[in-house]
């Protein structure tokens, strides 16, 4: 079919030189695919190099502590990916003797590996005839064929998967999958693609109908919840502070943070001081409190966090305190790590 020939020819001329494309090692491909879930290539690349240097094999990753993995993952976001990555590495190393499943069906059994990731590993490592369908593929196919099916619906995913399978050359599924994803990432981009230079500009139905910016159709909207976090940064005369691990399920599970006061809105210094004295640290003598900066807005996929940091100086020594040097060795959410990095703990 002309579609896959034109697409693959474009890919061979325009593809980026990415490290996970120069191997069929399922460990490296799995790492890259997990890292690139909801993450841009430019952001994920340094993490890929860091992980493959620190953990050259799946056994090295399996033998690391979760804290080591989370620390190296710090800043990449969606930390459940890192926790699942670690658990899967342990399973592959200990239960499968370090060998990844060699089929789409069995790859799906791995924790944190969904249909897209399983298809990517199966085709790139084992050249299995299974199409990958991600946001790039939805966009390319919906525009080229003028498909108005709502991509938020499970039925639509089946429709696009069947279409991709029909278009995919059976003798080289890996290069087709790489090509269509790369085409969506570089050429058929979400907003204002340059259709004048597109190799499909004579056959793309959406372009002929002037519907490029209307596709793909996605009706499902994410409801965003606003939350208000007040981090209490204790400081004694030696500069020690106190941190805690987030053990509850939800965002930032098993990462560290300062003691947290969550409120229903942005609050002032008097509110925080009262809470600190009466509830959070009633056993300490408070010498002073100061807001380190105005509220920082940290956006997550379903939540908007309004974060304030409050330095609270105390008379006594912080029990189980952490000094400024050791503080940076713990895995933190990036918004807290950035605060520490800027040394605003000394505000």
UniProtKB/TrEMBL annotation:
It is an enzyme of class 3 (hydrolase). CDD domains: ENDO3c, NUDIX_DNA_Glycosylase_C-MutY. The keyword Hydrolase applies. Its cofactor is [4Fe-4S] cluster. Keywords: 4Fe-4S, DNA damage, DNA repair, Glycosidase, Hydrolase, Iron, Iron-sulfur, Metal-binding. InterPro entries: A/G_AdeGlyc_MutY, DNA_glycosylase, HhH-GPD_domain, HhH_base_excis_C, HhH_motif, MIG/MutY, MutY_C, NUDIX_hydrolase-like_dom_sf. GO terms for molecular function: 4 iron, 4 sulfur cluster binding; 8-oxo-7,8-dihydroguanine DNA N-glycosylase activity; adenine/guanine mispair binding; metal ion binding; oxidized purine DNA binding; purine-specific mismatch base pair DNA N-glycosylase activity. Residues 35-186 form the HhH-GPD domain. Binds 1 [4Fe-4S] cluster. Belongs to the Nth/MutY family. Adenine glycosylase active on G-A mispairs. MutY also corrects error-prone DNA synthesis past GO lesions which are due to the oxidatively damaged form of guanine: 7,8-dihydro-8-oxoguanine (8-oxo-dGTP). This is Adenine DNA glycosylase. It comes from Flavobacterium reichenbachii.
